[in-house]
Design brief:
This protein is mainly α. It folds into two domains: 1-48; 56-93. 83% of the residues lie in helices and 0% in strands. It has helices at 2-13, 18-25, 29-48, 56-92. Helix 1 (2-13) runs antiparallel to helix 2 (18-25), helix 1 crosses helix 3 (29-48) and helix 2 (18-25) crosses helix 3 (29-48).
């Protein structure tokens, strides 16, 4: 893992050409570039995370699920109240 990090950081810093770095680490240039892409993707994912390690999309999903549950309960209460009012209305007619 340390070798990968060193190779990728050297590539990103442009300390040596990719071909030379690949030879030094005994890998293909394609592998070096794949390591770089994985490294950068992991960095993006880490930056997207919120304070508690949950990314913004997950936080939004949780908030929306909580809102949906609250609205579902409200609809249930209103439906029950409506049934009671209909029953009372029929009795008064």
């Amino acid at each position: 893992m340390k070798q990968r990090r060193e190779a990728v950081l050297s590539l990103l810093r442009r300390e040596e050409p990719a071909a030379q770095l690949a030879r030094r680490y005994g890998i293909s240039e394609q592998t070096l570039y794949r390591w770089r892409d994985d490294f950068l993707a992991a960095g993006e994912a880490a930056l997207a995370k919120g304070k508690n390690g949950v990314d913004a999309r997950d936080q939004e999903i949780r908030a929306l699920k909580a809102e949906l549950e609250e609205r579902t309960l409200t609809i249930g209460k209103l439906a029950a109240a409506n049934r009671i009012l209909i029953k009372i209305s029929r009795q008064l007619s």
